Fold this protein.
Amino acid sequence: MFFRLIADNFTRRPRRKFLTAAALSLGMAVATAALSVSLDVGDRLSEEFKSLGANLVVTPEADSLPLEIGGVDFRPANSGAYLPESDLPKIKSVFWHNNITSFAPVLDLKTMLDPIRKVPSSVEVPVIGTWANHSLRLSDGNTFLTGAARTNPWWSVTGDWFKEDANECIVGQNLAKRQSLKIGDRIELQGGELAPRGRAQIDDESLTVTIRANVPLVVTGVLSSGGPEDDAIMVPLNIAQRLADKLGQYRKLYVSALTKPEDDFARRDPKTMKPDELERWSCSPYVSAIAYSIKQVLPGSDVRVIRRVADGEGKILTRVRALLWLVTFASLLAAALAVGASSASSVIERRTEIGLMKALGAGSGTVGWLLAAEQLLLAFVGGCTGYALGLLLARSLGTKIFGVPPEPSFLVLGLILVLAAAVTLLGSALPLRRAARFDPAAILRGE
Amino acid sequence: MADLQVGVFCFLRGIRMSDRRSINRSMFWRVLRRSVFANRGRLFVILLALGAGAAITAALLNLQVDAKRRITTEFRAFGSNVVVSQRTSRQTVSNSGTFSASILGKILEDAAGRGENASGKSIIPSPFLYVVGEVATESSPKFKVVVVGTEALGLVNSVAPTWKFEPANGPEWTGENCLIGSKVAARLHTTANSILHITLNNEETTCSAAFTISTGGPEDDQVFAMLGKVQRAAALQGRISLIQIFVPGPPQQIQSYIATLQQEFPDVEVRPVRQFTEGEARLYSRISGILTATVAVVLILTALCVMAAMTNVAMERKNDVGLMKAIGGSVRRVLRLFLAEAALLGLAGGLIGAAIGIIISIGLGKAVFGVAAQPRLIVYPISVALTVIVAILAAYPLRRLVLIRPASVFRGEE
């Protein structure tokens, strides 16, 4: 009888039930969308922050102090220390290798542009050697695509990046303007002296002849970075190594890693921690923990956190997350209110029916159970359709805001069903309690 | 009851006799009052729905206005986003890459002049003079290092929010003594307040090492001293090599600031720090997108909620409407009565709810940004108006009242 009553109720007034279910699923759809988007938002924002570029920098430990002004190192050539390029694949073998999204080694030097063609007069230019889109062979046999195009996503290159194995380069926009260089131009960079110096005797005069390893290059693009690179020439790392006579070496490594915002615990010195604390510390992707693990695999290196990027990221991410959870909570609250109100009205409109049931001898408990079962069934149906609708809504919202749809999650489905059940029951509880106090006679008389 | 019914009768017939007019109007309000308070429970549900909707809308609107501004001031964490440097190349060391410091004063005046840009904290340009010099302590030998002359106020406020100062809880750097980059400090083996000898251009000055800083950038290899001191020692009075500025505000505002500054000072190059301005712009558009979407969603849900309650109203009033129609009330007049009721409820719910919402948003702003959100008065009328509109739109189910036939109501049919 119980089930028959419920089934009868659904089939007898399909339109009204449909309206209630529609309101319910609309509310739940919004709740689903809000939840899916905000569950996803942390990852999305971390990725968004990747556009700020590298948050770690690796330099040789034994380096002399760089005399860097405006991105140009004023140290005399060949001073300072270098790190071996062959160690680089090890970075992807650290515990946090999945968090390391990209890295790019840099070897910078200053040399003469066009030392032979003295018209217009040759000038000294900063040259930066790096990887553009380098596929790195890892020890496990996989390849990893990385380079400056990934660590510095805000750089824009008109034309193309240089190819790794060709004599090609890209020129900073300011330098290109000053030296009137265009894409397709050929330039030459002065290389290091080739030993030994040749000596020639011509008519009793002793001449010193220096042979240099000059490198001819083709300009393939113009770089706009908004930084010191606008005044420099970027070349493949191996060409810079040839120019500087530092084969297989680099001077600086920029690493871009996905990190967790640092808290007070993260800022502590790992050397002063107890073993269990150290374990917890190195198991959270704090930027300092990642720096620590990189230092372990690159001997002789000094890994520093670029505070401007890492701390700024952390601070803003914490704020934005709090803001988004708040907003999600607000929309959940609104959805709950809407669903609660519609289920309350669906109970109120059935006063006569309740009165009849009570007149026929049904107790308040039986009536309550019947209505609760109905509401739960409605909540389940509405919650499921709402979830499906909400996924669509979340897709379009996520695509609109972040360009990427959020992953559907079953956690959200569970949450939504629980929320739907709780809200419909709560919403109908209030009118039900009033209905329990109804005098059947008055209701049946139509008063 | 009898006079009420006479009043209803006159009112519904729309008797336009001059002596009846005042009765007519007062009757309208009387019927309205009676029907609003007829069912306290239902009144409470509708008011709760409208009020909660208005509260959430007002809180979100206020937070949206405030959060956009707040987020852009949060970008201060990234440090300066506009750089002023010399126009020609910066290729040679020391003197040639500098320009007159008088620009600094003009930028300050300019910032004070444009009040709207100074939202949050005011714009503080931070001058830098880079000189290669030599440093030494009593115990360690001399070596070359980049010495930076700057001013404490700008540095601490707009450039260095993420720099890690050691000792961290010391007094704020006032420029009286030196800041030493962590790598320089490691090489010098400085202890707190050891005396540093700086040689610039054969001129020696001393200062005490108050703080060690670590930034992960080139600052780790530099020594910071007071601008005046460095200018005097390097014989570069009134010259600087760089100005860094933090400009708060949305991306367009930063762009227009750069454009006007460039126009005013054509001798120098003004450019955005694209690494940060682009990330900031993207983040800003994401966040305002999310906030706008949420406000829209909450409004839709509020409408849904009120619509459910209004369906109830229509159901309960079947008898009343039947009676009104039977004694000659036109559908238009009956509907007007109900719409007025909806609008009145919307107004009441909106007035109460929006006020609560704004108070809530102040606390929420404190929770999210650490600073209480400023209540924007413009938000209040907007959310009240939105609530009234939603209440009237949500009265759509009342259209069913048109279909009611008085005869079937009186016969007790459904």
